[in-house]
What we know:
Helices cover 22% and strands 20% of the residues. It has helices spanning 64-69, 87-92, 101-113, 120-132; strands spanning 48-58, 71-80, 139-145, 159-165. α3 (101-113) runs antiparallel to α4. The longest helix is centred in the middle third of the chain and has 13 residues, at 101-113. The chain is elongated. The N and C termini lie far apart (77 Å). Mean pLDDT is 83; it is low at 31-41 and 170-174.
Amino acid sequence: RHRRNHRPGRQRGRVGRQGPRDPVQPGRRPHRLPMEGPPMSSTTAPDRIRLTGLSARGFHGVLPFEKEEGQLFLADVTMDLGPRGTVVASVTDDLDDAVDYAAVADAVVEVITGESVNLVETLAERIADVVLAFPRVLQVEVSVHKPQAPLDVAFDDVCVTITRQGVTSEPRPE
């Protein structure tokens, strides 16, 4: 008789799946290997910068009074910088290594107050194009709100949301 098989709660032999074996028991192969290095979760999701509630008076819409009188438009912009997209700026603490979100905000407001368009969808597309022109921005989500849209029913907001990716360029030969 072997004493190890007579411990309380232990069955004779291993029948079926009993759960993982203890990886520290000598002479046994570990059930699974421990993870080495830092956790990977910090590098899988893109770093993002979000600007919410950028507002300005614009003259967009299909009705003549919308183009004459104008109304309030709001924009929410989420910029994806890719995994570890803010790492350099966080180390150098230098604005030249970051996305200047004040400049992005000014550019978005300039589009809202700029050339009149008929559709909120067109306005959102133009904002996305301007934001993607900034260095380090790989993708952008733009939501344009038109809370004073001319509807015949009660409502809180009309919002169009689009997502656009920047054009990745091939490395230049030297």
